Amino acid sequence: MIISAMEAVAAAQRAHRTERTLPRWLVTSAGVVGAFLLAFAALFAGVGILYLIRDGGLGFGAKIHNALPLEQLAGQDSQPFSHMAIAWIPAGFVAGLAFFSLTRFGVLARTAVLTGLAAVSLLLAGAVSDSIAVNDPLSPHLASQLTRGATWIAVALFALGSLCAGLLPSRRRDAANRR
Fold first, then answer.
1. Is the dihedral of CA 40, 43, 49, 54 positive or negative?
2. Alpha helix (H) ranges present in 24-106?
3. Which residues face 80 on adjacent strands?
4. Backbone phi, then psi, for 170, in 5-degree steps?
5. Burial class (CB in 10 A: 0-12, 13-18, 19+), 112
6. pTM over the 0.70 mark
7. How far apart are the C-alpha atoms of 91 and 54, rounded to whole Å?
């Protein structure tokens, strides 16, 4: 009788444990959604940093035209390369860390996804900024964004930052090597 009571308690504990666990697909999906949200936040932070340091004294390197689309009417849309690097490499690094922590993507897949996300987001944001700046509809400004060097430089620096995050030693790899 004691054995059967212990078995009943153990079975109840197992049943209780299985009720509390979430489905694996839900956890994975939440991680991917969280990674994308953090990547968008990193993109917004990159834009914000670029606007914050636009008048700073750390400007060296070639001037990149159309880096700040909302400043084009004031004639201050050009930024030195150093400002672009200061804004976009850390933003990409943070997005890369988010993807590494919350998804199972490999380094190249993560960099490719983040590069695509940055390209689409920044091209669309540039078109919206241009249409606002000159008070035009959005559609005429979409195709012209593809020729903007500043946007592609920002995308490349963002990708470089996310790639650098992928080159950090993995804690999962380190834990597996200790075994």
1. negative
2. 24-52, 81-102
3. 63
4. -80, 135
5. middle
6. yes
7. 16
How confident is the prediction along the chain (179 residues), in pLDDT tens digits per residue?
Answer: 556 666 766 666 665 555 567 677 776 777 778 888 888 899 888 888 887 876 766 767 667 766 666 666 555 666 777 888 888 899 999 999 888 887 777 888 888 999 999 999 988 888 888 788 778 888 888 888 888 888 898 899 999 999 998 887 765 544 444 44
Phi-psi region of 86 (alpha: psi -120 to 50; beta: other; left: phi over 0): alpha
Per residue in 34-59, is it b (16+ CB within 10 Å) or e — as a string?
Answer: ebbebbeebbebbbebbbebbeeeeb
Q: Are 100 and 166 in contact (CB under 8 A)?
A: yes
Cβ atoms of residues 113 and 42 within 8 Å: no
Closest CA to 68 of 85, 82, 47: 47
- Beta partners for residue 128, in sequence order: none
Interior angle at CA 52, CA 48 and CA 61, nearest 5: 105
